[in-house]
Amino acid sequence: MTHRPIEEPLRPVRPHPVDTVGWHRPPEPDQVDPAVLSALLHRHGWQRRGGATGRYGRWTPPGPGGGGTSLLVPENRAFPDSDDLLGEALVALSRSGTPSAREVLVSLAVPSDEIRWWRDVPTGPAGTTPWTVEEQLRTCARQTLLAAALATRARAGYYGARHRRPAAAMLENVLVGFPAGGRSLTAFVPVGSGRPLAVRLHQALYAAREAIDYRRATGGMDAFDGAVEAGVSRELTEALIGLVRGTEGARIAVEWAPAAAVPDGCAAGAEAVEFSPGDLPVLREAGARYLREEPSVSVRITGAVVRMRRSGPRGEGTVRLRVLAGAEIPHVRLTLDEEAYRIAGHAHLVGLPVRVHGRLESRGGFRKLTGVSGVVPVQVDEAERDRLMKSLQENLDFFEEACGGD
Length: 406
Hints:
Elements (H helix, E strand, L loop, with lengths): L16 H4 L13 H10 L3 E2 L7 E5 L10 E4 L7 H14 L3 H11 L2 E8 L11 H23 L10 H7 L4 E2 L7 E7 H28 L3 H6 L6 H11 L5 E6 L17 E3 L4 H14 L3 E13 L7 E9 L5 E6 L1 H12 L4 E8 L6 E10 L4 H13 L2 H7 L3
Parallel strand pairs: 11-13
Antiparallel strand pairs: 1-2, 2-3, 4-6, 4-7, 5-6, 7-8, 9-10, 9-12, 10-11, 12-13
């Protein structure tokens, strides 16, 4: 059984809410903390250009041509016109064509930690870039987030197929902004559901940077062993390789939501973590090391038989199980002797899962069980049994595979 290469493009992160749900109304003024709005404006490049000290600040957008637009943002709610000023500022942001204005509104509507990626890519005529550059940035950004989500489930140098489903589910509420010509991208990770992901990525990036520096300074790879506890894995090294490859360098920054406290053990206002093409050999070496040294795991798996195959009417055969319990993987493949193969076939025909003991092999991505023993049917409730029987009826090719040739 083959599995998807790690370089293959993954399902895109959810697009910006402005485009998916037509979200265009700013938050109500009484729902906005003036200090949070000011902090977000500063984060997104707006400049404070005066204003009545202690009462309000005048902010202009980043970039050339921003001098003609300004927002009056109260410093607090101590004055009667604070809500009016806030309302006018929020309406002005919602009508602005500046990308940073929409990002500020998203962070106000959904308090989020912001993760930013920058890639220093060569440009073409008039600053253009190939369309594949933007696609690569989105793919690498999602791989980075997925690696961090995996590390919130368990610590491992290589995950393979393990924990993929719950890790991918953590990304469902992540919002993504528009890439700036394939050179930068921002993801908004809601504090309520995604703070552990942002914390793990923050710690893993710094641990990876320190391990690379240690390897380049001393020649030793020991730091990568300790970095696993911080969330560094083969999945993260592969994401960083993809991010840096074909560029002059790349950076990733995690910025905490100003509406929430800075997480324990994390620095406020930490600088972006930088990676360069010179880091690529070390990242490749670390990834190969993680893949080679991650041990197999002893497990007891309960699963529904979804596929059976053997070369003749007798002898051993290969079975594929949809895992119900015992391992954080969706499917597993195992080879059974004639008696165990017969038990698995009978269990499937009557709509029962089986329980097996064995070792989940790291080679191949933790998709294969070896040393299998103790194959027995498992009783389930009627609802689950009916569902398994329905699955059998929908897969008529099962009979050909269970009873005959290739």
